[in-house]
């Protein structure tokens, strides 16, 4: 297979694969330099709900506090005049922001305060990572049984690509990584796998059809498989994205990270199912010969019997 013999669609898929490689390398670089901004679910600390009639936005609230205190707080808006303050387990910081608001003449009411110990956060992080790892192992076993190894490798690489890009985006933007975001990664695994399996199943069916005397180039078969499943993929992704967008815009700060991760994961998952899950097997030498079954002499004799 040479570049000159590829169709425009095949060239676009290969270029998309190269773009994905560059994005993965960039994401790994960002993760190694900046790391993830772990939320209080994992680090432990205080979560305080307050309400105030004199402050309407996060910018107004942070303007009333000193930079030293603001740097130690994660402030989110939970509703009109309702804010959630997250902070490390430091009682001095709690006293500081309350004192500064009082000095500024801000009348506020503490609705609730809760504390999450760091030990609990470590256990949650460990259990979440174990759940993620177990899901990946189960999926790899399933793909190994269901697909020829080239299609299975393409699906696994596409899955890892989606997770790395989402984590890289959270690291780049400094978004809080908490339990809801970890749950979204599990959802992304399932969604990305579904897309890859739909395309992979169609590729396998078309290759089996071409395993007789008539042979068609593998890249043409893959293009046909993508074309026949693209409408269903776009409709499914579009309706899901519309739902996630509503959660993002209307569900409040508590689910913002979850919605962002899932939205990005679905977009890159649809992209990777075309540019990675379908293209990588082609570069690894997938052909209809991989689905040609060799019969033993006894079975062949039964078939040749009159």
UniProtKB/TrEMBL annotation:
Record membrane topology: Multi-pass membrane protein
This protein's UniProt keywords: Cell membrane, Membrane, Protein transport, Translocation, Transmembrane, Transmembrane helix, Transport
Residues in Protein export membrane protein SecD/SecF C-terminal domain copies: 101-281
Compartments where located: Cell membrane
Transmembrane segments: 124-145, 152-173, 233-251, 257-280
Pfam families noted in UniProt: Sec_GG, SecD_SecF_C
Entry similarity comment: Belongs to the SecD/SecF family. SecF subfamily.
Role according to the record: Part of the Sec protein translocase complex. Interacts with the SecYEG preprotein conducting channel. SecDF uses the proton motive force (PMF) to complete protein translocation after the ATP-dependent function of SecA.
HAMAP family: SecF_B
Assembly behavior: Forms a complex with SecD. Part of the essential Sec protein translocation apparatus which comprises SecA, SecYEG and auxiliary proteins SecDF-YajC and YidC.
Protein name: Protein-export membrane protein SecF
UniProt lineage: Bacteria, Pseudomonadati, Pseudomonadota, Gammaproteobacteria, Alteromonadales
């Amino acid at each position: 297979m040479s570049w000159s013999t590829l169709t425009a669609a095949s060239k676009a898929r290969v270029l998309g694969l190269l773009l994905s490689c560059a994005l993965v390398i960039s994401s790994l670089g960002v993760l190694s330099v900046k790391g993830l901004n772990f939320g209080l679910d994992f680090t432990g600390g205080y979560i305080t709900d307050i309400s105030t009639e004199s402050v309407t936005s996060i910018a107004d609230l942070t303007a009333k506090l000193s930079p030293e205190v603001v740097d130690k707080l994660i402030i989110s808006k939970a509703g009109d005049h309702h804010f959630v303050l997250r902070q490390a387990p430091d009682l001095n910081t709690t006293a500081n922001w309350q004192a500064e608001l009082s000095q500024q003449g801000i009348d506020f009411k503490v609705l609730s305060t809760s504390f999450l110990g760091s030990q609990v956060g470590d256990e949650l992080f460990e259990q979440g990572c174990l759940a993620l790892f177990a899901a990946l192992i189960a999926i790899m076993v399933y793909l190994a049984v269901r697909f020829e190894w080239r299609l299975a490798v393409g699906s696994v690489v596409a899955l890892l690509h989606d997770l790395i890009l989402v984590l890289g985006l959270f690291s780049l933007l400094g978004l809080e990584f908490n339990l809801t975001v970890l749950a979204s990664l599990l959802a992304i695994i399932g969604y990305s796998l579904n897309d890859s399996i739909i395309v992979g199943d169609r590729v396998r069916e078309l290759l089996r059809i071409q395993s007789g005397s008539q042979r068609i180039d593998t890249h043409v078969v893959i293009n046909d498989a993508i074309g026949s499943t693209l409408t269903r993929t776009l409709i499914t992704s579009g309706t899901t994205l519309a739902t996630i967008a509503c959660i993002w815009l209307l569900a409040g700060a508590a689910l913002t990270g979850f919605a962002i991760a899932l939205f990005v994961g679905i977009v890159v998952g649809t992209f990777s199912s075309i540019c990675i899950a379908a293209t990588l097997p082609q570069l690894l030498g997938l052909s209809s010969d991989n689905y040609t079954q060799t019969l033993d002499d006894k079975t062949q004799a039964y078939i040749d019997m009159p």
